[in-house]
Amino acid sequence: MCSDDESPRVGYIGRFVILCVAALGIILSLTTTSGCSFLHFENNSGVASQELNEPFELATEGYIGLFGYEVTKVDFSGVPEKCESYPSNASFEVLTAGRIVSIAAPIFAVIGVIITLFDTCIGHYFGCFIMSAFMYLIACGLQACTFVLLAEPTFCYDAPHNCSVGSAGIQSAFACTFYWMCTVLTCCFPRPDPYREYRKNPREVRESKTRVERIVTVVEDIQEGFNPNIVEEGRVNQKKKRKPRNSRKSNAPSSELGSNNDNVDRVELKERKSPDGSRQVDEVTFYMDGTRSINTQQYGPGE
Hints:
Elements: H1 7-34, E1 39-42, E2 59-64, E3 68-74, E4 77-78, E5 84-85, H2 93-121, H3 128-144, E6 162-165, H4 167-188, H5 195-198, H6 202-210, H7 228-241, H8 260-263, E7 264-273, E8 279-287, E9 292-299
Antiparallel strand pairs: 1-2, 1-6, 2-3, 3-4, 3-5, 7-8, 8-9
Helix pairs in contact: 1-2, 1-4, 2-3, 3-4
């Protein structure tokens, strides 16, 4: 567990790591879009596939990108490697969807970076923390949708040639992973105080975040017919009527420290009756020093 002085540092370090990871993801997304080697296909049958439309109608090996393509061999004859844009009459169902998500993914990631910077430097507002994590999560999902190119039947799915992921496809996978890491790190790292407020007085900002003020109102519970003055007066009278325990007299000899009353702890009376009606009363006196004395008196029948 971090102390109060270390917790803001951990939060700022976490936000810096998130921004760096998001920047790497954005860079990889852009290189994926500009590259021509998202997928690689190779025909080993000796004859070009008749299912490949323009511009791959005579190609036996080449690279497929989101916005460009590159033909490597035509009828197993090498051709100059050149990344070109797709012609206007090229019709592939999945390319349009792949292009849309490849552009939208870094846009949502940039929005997440802007919200993260605003939440870290300017101030905390409702929804900023959740929105930044949500933007990274959307970017992750959109970037993963770029692999929709694998569903194109003429490229990989149910095609008469070998198909594999190229370098741009690997970069897209890493970009998707980085966006997911940004989502997780945003939720795991502590949320630091806004730097604009923290740099003024860090200790005062932390105390204002943790101080809790409560106002407690105590209402006097007064029952009907209850008068506290009468009750208090009755207690005072009861104290006045109570006699001290040491007021009883004792026949024991006086103590060296003072009179008998000062040294007497308590006095107990024990009475025993005889069958003939006589009584014997023992007056036991206990002193403060632990000693005691017994004064016995005999009473006849009827006394």
